[in-house]
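User: Study the shape:
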Amino acid sequence: MQSDDNRITTVRPTRRGLLASAVLVAAGAAGRGGTAVAAPGSPGHVPSLWHEFTRDPYRHPQIPYVGRAGYGGGARRFPRRPVRADVRDFGAVADGRTDCAPAINRAVAAVGRAGGGTVTVPPGTFRIDGVIRIGYSGVVLRGSGSGRTTLYATKNLTELIGPYGSRYGGDKSSWSWAGGLIWLAPEARWDSLTAAIRERDWPFEGWTGNRRDEWRTLTAVEPARRGDRTVTVTDPSGLRPGALVLLRLADDAEHTLLEHMAGGGPGPESYTWADKSKLLSYVPYEWPVRVRRVRGREVSLERPLPLDVRPEWDPRFTTHVPELTGSGVEGLTLEAVQTPQQPHLLDLGYNGVVLQCAYDCWVDDVTVRHVDNGFGLVAASACTLRRTRVAGRGSHHPYFCREGSHDNLIEDFTVEDRTTPAPAGTQLHGINVEGLSSHNVWSRGDMRMGTFDSHRGMPFANVRTDITVNNTGRHGGDASAGPLFGARFTHWNIRVTNGRAGLVKIDGLAPYSATVGVDEVREFDQIDVPDFTGDLHTRLELYGTTDAVRPRNLHEAQRALEDPANR
């Protein structure tokens, strides 16, 4: 191991070091021939970036720590809650004609009011003419498998809730990027959102209310470093183990918080932040996290800090809209009535599954078909989307992650090729992230269309790994949303089938980023330029040699490094 002054020192093996060695050996064995190979460019080559990362996983300058992303800190299994209701007992009929949305919602509400459990939906096609709402914690809506249970949605969100105007004016609709026909959100958030939409007072969709005023301070937080798992607070009396709190960081007049999210240095310091009105609407930065332990004024957290904590940002733990937690959707297909895809921003809201103000929730074995938008994470954190699929006529956002969504895991996902040609004026984005969202992971994906979309709003510290992509989409986001990327974006083992570079090879775009094991690519219909001047402090390794990357999957390898005592 090297010390800070670059002299070589000898140390006794640590648990982390032994685990790292085990990960590398296992990764090599999973390659060709069962033996780890160290020669550059050959199968089993381990990038130098990985060796660097294992020496200080929580504070690496280019690669973020995402080893605890997803439900339960990355749990491989979801809880099997006891079955409490069958939708047929509440009036649902699998005849494809009867509107079953009221019956399904009655079953969900009854189980929720009784303290939680599973609501089963048997095989067959159940028509729904309304939104399926999961607003109670501990409730799971479980079909009999995505190939056996179908919810057939006949109406869009504009019909069901009302027009949702857009900042872009005219007949543009916010349903182009918001809301789902299956909508997981706490009752308090649902009520305030729909009331604001009815009153045409377009809502803020995050954790602290439509005007960010639905919170109170629990305690101030003393200075700490990115990667710390224990912080010191001024008053621990309002904190208890297991409680979910918001770490709230406000920017200062010089925008040093935004500079810090971009990695700091001359480029971010010279960037013009003050005119980025949409970006500034995402600040204060709000990071939800559970308290693990309180000992005096020392508070341990279930995840390491995503950023430094500095006095000039008025750091504090606060309350928030009551979260939805421990809820999920499993084993079904949501199919919308097939309608032509609309021109850009005119979608009416044939949307799939959205998790909003949700924490430790999940979606498993769910397909959406013929939707305007597929799966959404909106101010959602520590959630897992597993074995999900977007199919049918093409989607504006197959996956979107926005409004400060953090620590989510999207794995084993598929974006199928569209079944009908795209009409003029439509836009396909892909796997989207925006709005200061951080530490999210997209893993083991098969993208037959779309791209690695950033909608500006400076998302930072996100990972895409072990994905095959036919890179056909375009990024979005207007100038007022600020940079495409903040610091510590990582693309690791990405197989590009059509040679297009846009938003995949990011060493010339994202500050303090890592591009490792990406196929050789070229530009052709969208030119991406960096937002920051000067040296971006980026790393490019194993370019054009995706078969050589070990570990193959960055998230899985980070997960293996985690000390069991911290899980």
About this structure: The mean pLDDT is 90. The chain has nine helices and 27 strands. The radius of gyration is 23 Å.
